Amino acid sequence: MATTFHSLPFCSSAPNCTQQPRCLAGIVSCVHQSARSSFAGRSLHLPHLKWTPTKLRSQNARPVMMTVKPKIQFIQGIDEQTIPDVKLTKSRDGTNGMAIFKFDQPSVFDASGDVGDITGFYMIDEEGVLQSVDVSAKFVNGKPAGVEAKYVMRTPKDWDRFMRFMERYSEANGLQFIKK
């Protein structure tokens, strides 16, 4: 569906606007008549603007690639500094799977008192955000010791997207894949 914008003349009671461009004279009265307005002011004269087309230089035009360092967050805006152990499971038919992230002594516990509660599990990269709310904390002697987060992949497309994130995240953080 195409959207079209039309400009309508604005009216003002400013006393110095006595001239009305000929091309707008009928439109102004038409707008007032159609709105059944009792407006008795004067039309505002707007000078004609000159448009100077900008030329695109195809030789110098290049796509700009924005890269985002892959990161994990438990509180939006606060990057997790601890590198997790990640275990992957996949169904035999390859249609779904799960990633289990285990963080020992995560830095989110250092910041959570100052900035708020853990709101979820966010994996952020240049393609966007993968998120889960399946997050649990482990406490030892009343003190936080770890966090476990699960990310479920329900389709092959979800699996491929997750693997692209993990490739970027592992490259940025020095992780390696070990198949068991």
From TrEMBL:
Q: Could you identify this protein by its name?
A: Photosystem II reaction center Psb28 protein
Superkingdom of origin organism: Eukaryota
- Give the UniProt subcellular location, in the record's own words: Plastid, Chloroplast thylakoid membrane
The topology of this chain with respect to the membrane is: Peripheral membrane protein
What subunit structure does UniProt give? Part of the photosystem II complex.
Alphabetized Pfam families for the sequence: Psb28
The entry's family comment says:
Belongs to the Psb28 family.
User: InterPro entries in the record, alphabetically?
Assistant: Psb28_c1_sf, PSII_Psb28_class-1
Signal peptide interval: none
GO aspect biological process, one term: photosynthesis
Key words, A-Z: Chloroplast, Membrane, Photosynthesis, Photosystem II, Plastid, Thylakoid
